[in-house]
């Protein structure tokens, strides 16, 4: 299964079009690509580099709970959304520290600045955890995934719990072609720290198995896409568990699939490695609802990857 992802990385390196991007980093990009993962064959967590499953678990549970504040993530030692919250803070009138303009790229080329940045963001994260008022103001990322999945705002002032609704439909009308959850709400885009990259997903039931297809408008292939593959595969496992189904396929459809220019060497390193056996997932059988799951209820088994490959994040 992992070969599908590696083929994508190879294709972008060899055939990708050079494009500018929002972050100013530069990318190689292709448009319109699809990968398929048979979840009966194992759990698609990459083995050609270590991918931290605990971060995938806590982020997905964060989405499922409808949470949009990074405090929950920080309490679970998950820092993958820190930069977006921090960027909002340093652009506010309340921030009076060192100049953090373009901190993402400056950290890579200026060791002295990186030391200052690490100190500032560590203090920021600690304050999010310890100061509830500060957390409410600067830990919030706007109506991102969790809010759209669980509290989609309607024109009449009501909310729709899309995730609960689609699970109920899987149980009652499994052949429906409307088993869809959308995170792309045009009205809320301006107020989000990062507009949804994985914009919508659809479930499909056949032969007692649950499959899921994700449409992702934008995919950071080296850093982000491995997380997205594992996250939606895990979501499929959780929903299948609640609805009494086996898992089927995870189908990953990408719009703009890109490698950042400062990830090319890392991708080449990953492509040079051999693929190992896929791990498996074990879920707590005592949990009957996806909304009751906690970190300890999801166990990754037999994961034996190559060592991780570090790469900078583009903010």
Please tell me about this protein's structure.
- The chain is an alpha+beta fold.
- The protein has 2 domains: 1-68 and 143-301, 2-Layer Sandwich (Thymidylate Synthase, Chain A); 69-141, no CATH class.
- The protein has helices at residues 2-15, 53-64, 71-75, 82-90, 103-109, 111-130, 132-138, 145-150, 162-172, 224-243, 264-271, and strands at residues 17-19, 27-38, 152-153, 159-160, 180-182, 198-206, 209-220, 246-260, 280-283, 298-301.
- The chain starts with a helix and ends in a 14-residue tail after the last strand.
- The active site is at residue 197.
- InterPro entries: Thymidate_synth/dCMP_Mease, Thymidate_synth/dCMP_Mease_dom, Thymidate_synth/dCMP_Mease_sf, Thymidylate_synthase, Thymidylate_synthase_AS.
Outline of the structure:
By secondary structure, the chain is of the alpha+beta class. The protein has helices at residues 2-15, 53-64, 71-75, 82-90, 103-109, 111-130, 132-138, 145-150, 162-172, 224-243, 264-271, and strands at 17-19, 27-38, 152-153, 159-160, 180-182, 198-206, 209-220, 246-260, 280-283, 298-301. It is globular.
Order of helices and strands: HEEHHHHHHHEEHEEEHEHEE
Approximate shape: globular
Main sheet: which strands, in order across?
A: 1-2-8-7-6-5
User: Would you identify the CATH architecture of the largest domain?
Assistant: 2-Layer Sandwich
Show unreliable segments. Answer: none
CATH class of the largest domain: Alpha Beta
Distance between the termini: 30 Å
- CATH topology grouping of the largest domain: Thymidylate Synthase, Chain A
Helix percentage range? 25-40%
Name the CATH homologous superfamily of the largest domain: Thymidylate synthase/dCMP hydroxymethylase domain
Helix-strand category? alpha+beta
The main pleated sheet reads as: 6 strands, mixed
If helices are DSSP runs of H or I spanning 4 or more residues, what is the number of helices?
Answer: 11
Tell me, rounded to a whole number, the average pLDDT.
95
Q: How much strand content do the residues show?
A: 15-25%
Can you count the beta strands? 10
Q: How many distinct folded domains?
A: 2
> Over the alpha carbons, how many angstroms does the gyration radius reach?
20 Å
């Amino acid at each position: 299964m992992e070969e599908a992802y590696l083929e994508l990385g190879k294709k972008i390196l060899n055939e990708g079009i050079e494009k500018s991007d929002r972050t100013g980093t530069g990318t190689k990009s292709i448009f319109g690509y699809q990968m398929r993962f048979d979840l009966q064959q194992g759990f698609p967590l990459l083995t050609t580099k270590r991918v931290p499953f605990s971060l995938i678990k806590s982020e997905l549970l964060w989405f499922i709970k409808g949470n949009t504040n990074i405090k929950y993530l920080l309490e679970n030692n998950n820092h993958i959304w820190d930069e977006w919250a921090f960027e909002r803070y340093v652009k506010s009138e309340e921030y009076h520290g060192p100049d953090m303009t373009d901190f993402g790229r400056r950290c890579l080329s200026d060791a002295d600045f990186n030391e200052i940045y690490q100190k500032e963001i560590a203090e920021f994260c600690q304050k999010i955890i310890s100061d509830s008022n500060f957390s409410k103001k600067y830990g919030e990322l706007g109506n991102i995934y969790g809010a759209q999945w669980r509290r989609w705002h309607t024109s009449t002032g009501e909310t729709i719990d899309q995730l609960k609704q689609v699970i109920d439909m899987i149980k009652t009308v499994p052949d429906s072609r409307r088993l869809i959850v959308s995170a792309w709400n045009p009205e809320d885009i301006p107020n989000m720290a990062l507009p949804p990259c994985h914009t919508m997903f659809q479930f499909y039931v056949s032969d007692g198995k649950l499959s899921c297809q994700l449409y992702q408008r934008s995919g950071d292939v080296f850093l982000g896409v491995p997380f997205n593959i594992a996250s939606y595969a895990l979501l499929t496992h959780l929903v299948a568990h609640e609805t009494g189904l086996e898992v089927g396929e995870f189908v990953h459809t990408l719009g703009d699939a890109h490698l950042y220019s400062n990830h090319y060497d890392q991708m080449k390193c990953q492509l040079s490695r051999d693929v190992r056996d896929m791990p498996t997932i074990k879920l707590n059988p005592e949990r009957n609802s996806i909304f009751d799951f906690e970190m300890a209820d999801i166990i990754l088994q037999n994961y034996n990857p190559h060592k991780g490959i570090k790469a900078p994040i583009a903010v």
